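Field: COMPLEX_INPUT
Field: COMPONENT_COUNT = three
Field: RESIDUE_TOTAL = 367
Field: MODE = joint
Values follow.
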Amino acid sequence: MSTIKKFLYVNRKAPHGSIYALESLEVVLIGAAFDQDVSLAFIDDGVYQLLQNQDTSGIGVKNFSPTYKALGDYDINKIYVEKESLELRGLSKDNLMPLTWEDEDDDWAEKESIHVVSSEELSDIIEHQDIIFNF
Amino acid sequence: MKFGIMVSEGPYTHQASDTAYHFTEAALNNGHEIVRVFFYHDGVNNGTSLAVPPQDDRNITTRWSALAEKHNLDMVLCVAAAQRRGLLDKDEAKRAGKDASNMAQGFNISGLGQLIDAGIQADRLLVFGD
Amino acid sequence: MTTLHIINKSPFERNSLDSCLRLAKQGSAILLIEDGIYAAQKNTAFGDKVATATGLHSFYALTPDLDARGIDKDSIIDGISLVDYEGFVQLTTECSGVQSWL
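Field: COMPLEX_OUTPUT
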């Protein structure tokens, strides 16, 4: 059995103004099949990727925001959002999509995937990763 | 040490591909192993066979091709990103009903799984982007 | 071993330097490359912030990028070590992980 590595996917850019948010999510979904220890971090404008009520019909681009809801199906449940980034933008967890996953070790109880963390906590999380992707 | 290299921007517009190249070359010259150079986002444009840059400047694509040949590097363009941006090898072009292909020497098209695999195989993953 | 943080954008263009300094664990290695090297200069609005940060982290700047941009090595903040691409590679072998602040 090979060692499981800690993979962190870091997102710092807003959605739709550039392709990084969409193509980052595509990596995460493909990566889910590889059974590594996956975490996602949303920092700075990256927090905007998780905002509710995105309607892209007026700008004529694909609305991929519903795809974040699928992360739970792949047991990707360590989604860290930096508190300071939210606060600077006048946001709180309530503005974000309610992402959840079902814990099979807890009778399939539905649990929250998004964890709002302080800069210090996120700093610790970053420090303990093996492989860090940035988009 | 084993390195995975991710190039996230195309040639010339950003310095990312240049920096990635110089890092990769230095790593190889110091006896390290490059698991894979994976081109994603606009980075797939590094693999075009149709670029005709000015003669008095570096040719980013052929420079990568030459490095790959010298060191037997595995250079991969992400298939999804490549299709989106019109980088096609002969098989992809045929499959998509296109009348031309434009993959430069030394570059191969493959899936995002190869990027994840590079992360798994390598000791360090370096991302060069904007 | 600690994380190697790489910053490639000018602090006047992006908030990469600020975000890095906010989230880098004390004792990290921070490498300035490409346009990120502008943060290495003494006499900018970021000079004091970076000089203070050199007390918390090991700072490096990539010399080919300084030279390309006509930045005099005498104008670099004390406490920032200069490295070439070989030195860049060496830094990656001495850290436990690499974080590129794109």
